[in-house]
Sequence to fold (163 residues):
Amino acid sequence: MQACDDNESNTKVEREVQEDNLEASLAAEPPYQYQYFLTAQAINEYCKRTDVPGKLWYVYLYAPMGQELGFFVADRIPTSINVARTNPQRVVDRSGGDVVIKAPALDGVYYAGNIDMAYIFDVESDAMICYYNIPAIVSDKPLSLNMPQLEVKFEGTDSIGVE
Fold:
């Protein structure tokens, strides 16, 4: 029991030292008080701009070595494959207590983490275009870059009947 008491005592002392150091730090150098909250304004502006149905987004794609590939016009900002509409974790009741495990995505499969892939929907063709590990510049206004607009070659009907 002595070892447990020593550990608790050490932990208490460490917490006290941390709290004392924090108080001294704050007294010596008080935190800056924001006046304009520009980062919060930028986040809100991002949310406003990405929440406009039918807004056009210009997606300029580059090869991994920087060569210009071209651009697409999308009807919404590109979406990362890592975005989910459900919680990526779930709690499972086990005999030893609750355990947090990875939950399957909405498509019923498990994803391995940060995958550098995004997808867009092309305005002119309604094609879903996925791009993996490709640098992109995305703008809600056309940029004066000398890049060709990439076109979707589409003939016939969709094999899966998407309309």
User: Anything to note?
Assistant: Residues 2-28 form the longest helix (27 residues). Residues 54-139 form one domain.
